[in-house]
Amino acid sequence: MDVKLLTYLFVGLSFALYIGIAIWSRAASTREFYVAGGHVHPIANGMATAADWMSAASFISMAGIIAFMGYDGTVYLMGWTGGYVVLALLLAPYLRKFGEFTVPDFIGSRYYGNTARVVAVICLIVVSFTYVAGQMRGVGIVFSQFLDVDITLGVVIGMAVVFMYAVLGGMKGITYTQVAQYCVLIFAYLVPAIFISMLITGVPIPQFGLGAAVADGSGVPVLQRLDDTLAELGFSPYTEGAKSTIDVFAITMALMIGTAGLPHVIVRFFTVPKVSDARKSAGYALLFIALLYTTAPAVGAFARLNFIDTVHDNAYSDTAPWFRSWENIGLIGWLDKNGDGAIQYAPGAPFEGAPSFATERGPQGERLVVNPATDSANEVYVDRDIMVLANPEIAALPPWVIALVAAGGLAAALSTAAGLLLVISTSVSHDLIKKTLARGISDRQELLYARIAAALAIGVAGYLGINPPGFVAQVVAFAFGLAAASLFPAILMGIFSLRMNREGAVSGMLVGLGFTFAYIVYFKFVAPELNTAEHWWFGISPEGIGTLGAAANFATAFAVSAFTRPVPAEVQALVHRIRVPRGVETPHAH
Known about the structure:
With 590 residues, the chain is mainly alpha-helical.
């Protein structure tokens, strides 16, 4: 079979599996819709959490970022992995002991009022829709490239599949679907990585292959070869970072505490029977996540080597089919600036402004880049999001491996999208409608509102997938920054500070979210020409500004709480109850 037929087969079978699981696990109550009935086994919950957390950014974009940023790209590895540890140790067990359905539920109860609940819902919706935009873009990229389907139609198909198992099954359907999606995505990630590690180094384990010598008899280590190759082309060495220490720290910290504040990951710990199971599932999830995250640096390095070897200084007329297929959907572009018919890959932007391509073809059939940059010798535009997806094609792996990667990319994007959309729908139906606007509605009515909210959220997500605000991991990094600046401080202070009151928490969330959102919008959309280190506050980029936003949140919250009424005694008792292990006497609130 050819690649396209195999891809249709693999994707079709995986979609049939997901929909079958949704029908089998149809939710019959709000508890099943919101938290899968609270009866998920820790191992299954660990796999579902890993699939929920390893989004299109992890599967599609992270290794691409590492491939092109080198050492600087490791901030994503450190931040996301470290953040999961923070979540597992500091938040998950306590929130599970609290025992409700949603993050705004905790914030509304802990800060004793609907004001805090509504502000938390607003923060959650902003963060979740920012995050889901990246997932739906990943869906569109996979469909357009591997199934020869227009990006818009690909996003619509993805929306339809998510609609089936998110609206029908709720958290119950999503949980067991995500177990299947984890198996698909991890197999799809590891198989080509093992193949390519064998081809480049002769070592079958990618993590060891990254530190091994290139299998050409030279004895040169992979990273040394990559450093030397990039230096010859005029790039900075792969293993040297260009970012300042303060920016590396800020991005890593924003990703860490942003991970710990992501509502769709936190809610996974409400689905297990006991607090001890929450800890166990966190440990299992970290193990399942590590399989991909320890492989990503090797995938990124191998991808950059393969890309240079197959593209630089080779005649365009001799390029492999993969180059032209990605070129056809606008994710690769080439302009023969020096007229030699060969592709020159060098530092600098190949064109001025945003990626843009002419409708006509060049003399050699190439898709012409519009507005070439005259001050740069670089003739190639390549979207970093394609590197994991294109890697098996670049390495000329068997067609079934290429098809498997397409199915894995869709599994990663859809699993996270479903979790985010469910969190949005439950926040609207449970926290806004049931707990705020219409308190007397029945369980059946609440379930209906949850399904309607999920359907509307899927529609908005589809629009964002068709009109994405940036490349996948960049958009996701912004979501983490917004979560770091708004939800994480409120949750952390709610668990560990008896003094933090409603007025302080609400003020902190609004200041943190507003500051971070404004900073990102200004530098990314209002004045992108100023998005350089000399114009950033304290040298911190928009990707890392969530750290300052979180600091502003904490400072505002503690300052306001110091001059307002103390926390009621019954709320202090709630804090003691979720912090003290079962069987230990709870101190009297005072």
